[in-house]
Amino acid sequence: MEKVSIIGLDLAKRSFQAHGALADGCVAFRKKLSREKVLGFFAEQPRCIVAMEACGSARHWGRAIRDLGHEVRLIPPIYVKPFVKRQKNDAADSEAIAEAASRPTMRFVAVKTEEQQARAMLFRTRDLLVRQRTQLTNALRGHLSEHGVVAAQGPANVKVLKEAVEDQPTSLPLLVVELARVFLDQIEGLSKRISELEKVTVHQAACGETTRRLRTMPGVGPITALAIATFAPPMDVFKRGRDFAAWLGLVPRQHSTGGKQVLGKISKMGQRDIRRLLIIGAMAVVRSASRKGAPEGSWLQRMLARKPKMLVAIALANKMARSVWAMLAKGEDFRIPVVAAS
Q1: pTM for this model (two decimals)
Q2: Number of domain units in the chain
Q3: Per-residue DSSP letters for 45-56?
Q4: Are residues 253 and 202 part of one domain?
């Protein structure tokens, strides 16, 4: 009996589908598994490649199956879809996963550790609470504006709304005051929880050597450093800094043909959390340079002299991504570029 080379596993809550393929691509088996029998099944299989789509529970199963001695490959679902033949079902999906994993040029997703996923949960929780606070603040601003109470955007201006609600001789209806207090209590509670999570984030960022190194770069704070250490794969996956920038979606989208290069806006096809934070950090650097002045003869000064600030921030975020790759690949702290003498 020939040895199974690749097993494609279609994940689900209860019903899993496995597709075994030989080295020449022929079908070795198609098997439906319950959740309780998955690990027992793979423990009996000879050491081989186990491929799965990179979904919510894929990293949990990836770590468990890897501990059994198999090589685990996670594939982005968008790269699996072209290999699905005709109708979509669990058997067809598992076969497509095995077929995609056998391609020599296929790109895979790294299996995160439990510690990385815990930090990811910390990052996502804070991000969710910030969005909820923003929603509540905007809703309160909208309701009170209909009664003549206007305040600027941002959590720092909530105190203006609170003063208007708590003002004793206020002309606001009693029902509006009571409902506004519900909003204010929720906003205050979320602000306290966000502050607590930010302290935990700063502590986590201060503990690791990678996050400490990343924070030496202007525009990279503890949240950005923790996001890079959590969501980015090992830098040896990328051959050069541009590949990492492309993975983040910070390079121009191409629509080239016939040898003619046509470049558009940034692709936004990569890791959006890191991309967003790098752009925010780059914008902070650009604003600081606009107020205080960039170093004489520097790239940033030349760009600000002829380009809009937002465009400069995107270009700077691209440079920051390349610098992040160089710092982590070489194990060095950030070094300020030397300005060439004129």
Answers
A1: 0.84
A2: 3
A3: SPS-EEEEE--T
A4: no
